[in-house]
Specification:
By secondary structure, the chain is α/β, with parallel strands linked by helices. Helices cover about 50% and strands about 10% of the residues. The structure holds nicotinamide-adenine-dinucleotide (NAD).
């Protein structure tokens, strides 16, 4: 067995239908009594219901979370937390809302209690992001890792079917790249494989019937494992491509992950045969990349960059940006190879099938 380093992240997780009932005692456990509740404008109703539940422990509600945490929004939320004398933040929402709570914690060290309502997984990572002048900066800092996470699948019942499919593929992407990460280790790989299995088993049922609570619970469990994998080990080509496509070309986060994942997997397959065998096993298919493509197609999710706002004329620039800063990937990257990958992804061609463990 290869030597490895494993470091667990210090987070408390409460999982299960109606686990939100435990919110008041969990706030108390943090030693807090004046919570600032955060949400997007779209989820104000859901967040207000959370604030109502905790009564006097809610110091206020800030409903301006948006994708990628613009610096102005972060500053406004930081000032609101200060003005109210908040002693913790409760993030009710997806990655955008958790990201806003992290922006507050980064400068104030206020503890975060996260109540995730999508499958993005940010609640399990010490990764923060802030966007200024069109450029998104990210970093790792343990101060932004939520102290407590309440996973209540009841809150995900309202997630639209297509966001559920794409957000779920985003979570699968964390698991896939964790399996071939530079610092992969057997513990995180167990979580990653189980995450793919749980998500692949539940997402089609969720999309068919978004109020199927049992399927919702299994998908959220898989998302937790995906977030844990993302927080524990480094990512590679797939996440780099999605960062470029989202950051520079403004493509939507979860949809971009959904489209790119089968192509990144097909590209990396020859260099990561063991990881791909585990992905295929978790999906119940022979080939990892083909299995990922089939899963998103079967849910009616987008399968081509052309469907989600990418312009063909920007593919050259995207390929250039993707190879700009050297980063770890199990297979060596060239501009030509990435340009070809992006061309396949732009047109939604089925990713080239490669047998498990085989050479290209
Ligand atoms: P999101 O948080 O932007 O949510 C998308 C939309 O769906 C929003 O309008 C939101 O209000 C709505 N929504 C969320 N849950 C809902 C529900 N249950 N019912 C109804 N509507 C609901 O999307 P996301 O994909 O969760 O997060 C994307 C952002 O998170 C990106 O900025 C990404 O970079 C970031 N992210 C960060 C990390 C990290 O570790 N730092 C990890 C993953 C994603």
């Amino acid at each position: 067995m290869r030597s490895f380093i494993y470091q667990s992240q210090p987070a408390r997780v409460i999982f299960g239908a109606h686990s939100l009932d435990r919110l008041p005692e969990e706030i108390q456990r943090l030693g807090a009594s004046r919570a600032l509740v955060l949400c997007t404008p779209e989820q104000r109703g859901q967040a207000q219901a959370v604030a109502d539940r905790i009564g006097p422990r809610a110091a206020g509600l800030f409903d301006r979370a948006v994708m990628h945490v613009p610096i102005d929004t972060a500053q406004a939320a930081r000032e609101e937390a200060k003005r109210l004398g908040a002693d913790c933040c409760i993030a009710v929402g997806g990655g955008s809302t958790t990201g806003l709570a992290k922006a507050i914690a980064l400068v104030s060290e206020l503890p975060i209690l996260a109540v995730p309502t999508t499958y993005a997984g940010s609640e399990m990572t010490p990764i923060w992001g802030l966007t200024e002048g069109g450029i998104k900066k990210t970093g790792r800092d343990l101060r932004v890792l939520p102290r407590t996470v309440i996973y209540d699948p009841v809150l995900t019942l309202t997630m639209p079917a297509m966001l559920s499919a794409t957000s779920g593929m985003n979570a699968i992407a964390h698991c896939v790249e964790a399996l071939y990460a530079e610092d992969a280790n057997p513990i995180v790989s167990l979580m990653a494989e189980e995450g793919i299995r749980a998500l692949a088993a539940s997402l089609p049922a969720v999309v068919k019937n978004p109020i199927d609570l049992e399927a919702r619970a299994e998908a959220l469990y898989g998302a937790w494992l995906g977030g844990s994998s993302l927080g524990a080990v480094g990512m590679a080509l797939h996440h780099k491509l999605c960062h470029v496509l989202g950051g520079t070309f403004n493509l939507p986060h979860a949809e971009t992950h959904t489209v790119v994942l089968p192509y990144a997997a097909a590209f990396n397959a020859p260099a990561a045969p063991e990881a791909m065998a585990r992905v295929a096993r978790a999906l119940g298919t022979r080939d990892a990349a083909a299995g990922l493509f089939a899963l998103s197609s079967s849910m009616g999710a987008p399968t081509a960059l052309s469907q989600i706002g990418m312009k063909e004329g920007d593919l050259d620039r995207a390929a250039e940006l993707a190879v700009l800063n050297p980063y770890y990937n199990p297979r060596a990257i060239t501009r030509e190879a990435i340009r070809a990958l992006l061309d396949d992804a732009f047109r939604g061609r089925p990713p080239a099938p490669r047998p498990n463990g085989g050479e290209p």
